[in-house]
Amino acid sequence: MLSTLRKLDWLEWSYTMLQKFSGAHRAPQALPLELDRKRIYIVPTRFGFFFALVLLVLLLGGLNYNNNMALLYTFLLAAVALLSPLYTVRNLSGLRVVQVVAPPVFYGEVARFILTLQNPSSSPRPMVWARDKQDATFTDIEANGRSDVSVEVATRRRGWLDMPRSRLTTTYPVGLFYAWTWVHPPYRCLVYPKPEVDAPPLPMGGQAGTGQPERRGDEEWAGLRDYQPGDPSRLIAWKVVARTDQMVTKTFADHRSQELHLDYSQIDGLDLERRLSRLTRWVLDADKARLRYSLKLPNQQVGPDSGELHKHQCLRALAEYQP
Amino acid sequence: MSASFGRISALKQSPDLTTVLWLLASLTLAVAPHLTRLPLWLPLVFVAAAAERLSHFFFRRPALPGWLRFGLTLACLAGVAGSYGTILGRQAGIALLCVMLALKLLETYRRRDVYLLISLAYFVVVTQFLFNQSIYMSVFLLVTVVIITATLIVTELQPSRERHATHELSGLISPAGTLRNAGWMLLQGIPLMIGMFLLFPRLGVPLWGMPEDALYGKTGISDRMEPGSIRDLFVDDSPAFRVVFQGEPPDQSQLYWRGPVLWHFDGAAWCREAPCDRSDRDSPGMIGAQNRRRPPALENPIRYEVTMEASQQHWIFALDIPLRVPAGWRFALERDYTIHRRRPVTQTTVYTLTSDPGFKMNTRQDGWLRNLGLQLPPDLNPRTREFARQLRETHGDDDLAIVQAVLSRFRNEEYFYSFTPPPLGINTVDDFLFETREGYCEFYSSSFTFLMRAAGIPARVVTGYQGGLDMVDYTLIRQSDAHAWAEVWLDGKGWTRVDPTAAVAPERIDRGALAAAGGRRGPLDFEWIRGLRNQFDAVHRLWSDWVVKFNRARQRSLFRPLGVDDLSARFSLITLIVLGGAFVAVVMLLLLRAQWIGGLDPASREYARFCRKLQRSGITRGAAEGPRDFASRAAASREGLAAPIHRITDLYVALRFQPRQPDHALDELKSAVRAFKA
What we know:
The complex is a heterodimer.
Chain A: H1 9-19, E1 33-34, E2 41-44, H2 46-64, H3 68-92, E3 96-101, E4 105-106, E5 110-118, E6 125-131, E7 136-141, E8 146-154, E9 159-162, E10 166-170, E11 177-183, E12 188-192, E13 220-226, H4 238-244, E14 248-253, E15 259-263, H5 272-288, E16 292-297, E17 300-305, H6 308-320
Parallel strand pairs in A: 4-12, 15-16
Antiparallel strand pairs in A: 1-3, 2-11, 3-5, 5-8, 6-7, 6-10, 9-12, 10-11, 13-14, 16-17
Chain B: E1 6-7, H1 9-12, H2 17-31, H3 41-58, H4 66-84, H5 90-106, H6 111-127, H7 135-156, H8 158-163, H9 175-199, E2 224-225, H10 231-234, E3 239-245, E4 256-262, E5 264-265, E6 270-271, E7 302-308, E8 315-316, E9 318-319, E10 322-324, E11 331-333, E12 339-341, E13 349-355, H11 367-372, H12 382-395, H13 399-412, E14 416-417, H14 428-436, E15 438-439, H15 441-454, E16 459-466, E17 469-470, E18 475-478, E19 482-490, E20 494-498, H16 500-504, H17 506-511, H18 513-517, H19 527-548, H20 552-559, H21 569-598, H22 602-616, H23 627-637, H24 642-657, H25 664-675
Parallel strand pairs in B: 14-15
Antiparallel strand pairs in B: 2-6, 3-7, 3-18, 4-9, 4-16, 5-6, 7-13, 8-12, 10-13, 11-12, 16-19, 17-18, 19-20
Helix pairs in contact in B: 2-3, 2-6, 2-7, 3-5, 4-5, 5-6, 6-7, 7-9, 9-21, 12-15, 14-15, 22-24, 22-25, 23-24, 24-25
């Protein structure tokens, strides 16, 4: 009943009521964004309402018995309760959002918008929460210091994910009031396609039609790996299978051209998203194997190249691809 | 990267050790003043619960199973019922509250449990005021409230504490920082509290009745006198009542404060009427009220206002002999000049009385009262009866001579005034008069009255207070001024006061009971301590006048000089809202101003000071003017100051815009700005 922060559904009503006043209609704000006192909203928490009830009981008792000490005491608590929202608002007021960083994530992971909050005042600002509807994180910002909080959003598809309108909230110092302000900086997070699980091996040899590397005379023995469904039977190392009871496939590497061509059009029989998913896996695998590779989508070609930047360019192309 | 964020899961965790320790401190302080009133087992339950809760932090133990907690709850309920005979009523209610606190402690798993406990702690604190409204208790409880409020802040900061396990955040998390914040919040609340206290509409009549034992406290003099009852009061320096005389206060020896007159003696105890163990004292009794149709003419009236502390008794104290009591049905002046109040004095009460020390009571004998004044317990004290018979034989019909003979016996023979007399047997009067001959007012008045009755003279015991401490603008009567004397009916004079104690120890009347006993009452009883205590009584009186006794009437009289004749509830609420709103606005301004000023970093603050200095000499920095442009402009107009202006600007710009400045750079800027004279 008194939990203030976990289940805030009941507050949604007041949010809806206040939404039209509360900056929801405003365009996204540019950085640095200062938390203006006029845009900080405040409502009592459940504990706040319960405390009001306690005060009411004390007041009635004090009035009835004309017990002046009880009344003084009640009024003192009431005064603290009335002043506490000022402290709560002050804990947010004047903070600045100076930077937002959103590292790219894969579809299925949680996207994090990391807000750097700067406290230009000489009083520390403990327990500042950032939350959207799903999750919340908090931070404490030292006097004249800065600190990060993240707004976390579940990814629902690949591509660009706009930072949702989020709340910076606090109930400091006594938990009687809940203050919040809306932040909506124009930032977005790149969501890569989800890498395919149990994808076929890399399409070595330049023509990635079926995704199976062909054996050719100029290829050299490159080792064994676990069998994956779809490996041609002539590549299975039967001797090893007989000895160990494990299905193992022989692999060969092309030393003449280590350039790998990942081509969207060469993957057959899958829908768009699964193709992108497989390509994402291959890009990651190729990068891991430190290969030079290129990515060819119907509308663009990336590479050939290698390295971190190239990987991100490829993944970004995959994330953004629209047929 | 994400590892540095505090997660919401912190809130799902149960309170940490720090929170629980603060909580325990709060609860202990809140319950502590009740300890003397609680059954002995209850604090033990509390301590056991606290130990159980703390043990979770040191040993990984599962929580107590639900059936065990339920069983404990039943056992504690039964315990309270067994200790008090009920679970209703005030004392039992508070005990129940304490039991609830202890048992709730066992299941404090989540933050909302902590909030519930804190709310209960706030509530327990207020119950203390039912028993004690003194300054000391208020100060103690204020400290308690600071700590409870600090516990709220500690609870709020728990996730932060867990995140910064290794370092502290700007002293906010430290106990001292938390206490400072809580104290500061309460301090800021005090003006608002005073405003609400003065303005909040008060009830003229209670909404619901008082619980039977709602106001339990000191009793002082009652309508029953038995061996030792007054002696207990001698060591009690707390005020019984305060008196403000209209005009000169009478002489000390005239200050007999008349309380209940005791008619019936059962051999051990004196009481107002038979039988002595009667308990329904709410009724006025059979003595009955005076015939008020013809109030006596007053020759030498003394008017005064009495402020009486709560006594839980029906008896009102008045200067001998009270003749005019407040009109209305609540006060009754009875036929023996005892003032009876319809309702017991359950809170500090103010009343105005008129007395005339020279008044003669009942000069015409009232046969019924005369018989009442001759009652004696059968068969007891044969030696005294024999002595009375001898007195009557010696003096014949001269009652006055008998009285004087007895007084001179007390005065001239070996009788002593003492607080620690030897014990008496069944024949108390015999033993006292002829054997021990040692005692205090109770013994003398009781024996004297018995002796008079045995001699056939109507007599009665009067209890009350004697004396009073002159506090310049009022007279203080303490419980230790309790006294008992006698009245005898003499032909032509009516009921006449005789104080046999004065015959033995005249200084009792002149200088108080303590002087008469000739010594200290305890190890710490020194003159200067008593002086200090008496001075402190003035503070207590202010407290009592303005805090404890404040009521609707005083509220009205407070606002009358401001032109508010009829203080309606609506008026006070509106005023309260307006003033309270203004106060909140002022606090908000102060808080935010601190932010605006404090909002600048230290270097900017110094630079702003520097700009203000220049502004006073007529050089104002433009809104969009950079520091360097401003410096050259200022230096151009004040050539003599070019060097310091540039130096300050360079220091400021370096501090502000270049990273990693040496620590002393700020100090240099500070001293340069301070030394700067535009």
